[in-house]
């Protein structure tokens, strides 16, 4: 049991592959892309 736990502890990586602000920029970019897609789809439609 302890051998298995020791293997799990050695394989866990706590460092992110990119900095936290990088994730924020990527998330913001995805949100802007979704906003532009939504605006382009709804541009020609009239409201009921």
Automatic annotation (TrEMBL):
Origin superkingdom: Bacteria
Positions of transmembrane segments: 20-42
Keyword field: Membrane, Transmembrane, Transmembrane helix
Protein's name according to its UniProt entry: PEP-CTERM protein-sorting domain-containing protein
Organism, scientific name: Microlunatus panaciterrae
Source lineage: Bacteria, Bacillati, Actinomycetota, Actinomycetes, Propionibacteriales
């Amino acid at each position: 049991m302890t051998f298995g736990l020791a293997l799990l502890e050695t394989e866990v990586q706590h460092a992110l592959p990119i900095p936290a602000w990088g994730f924020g920029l990527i998330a913001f970019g995805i949100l802007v892309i979704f906003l532009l897609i939504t605006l382009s789809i709804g541009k020609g439609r009239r409201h009921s």
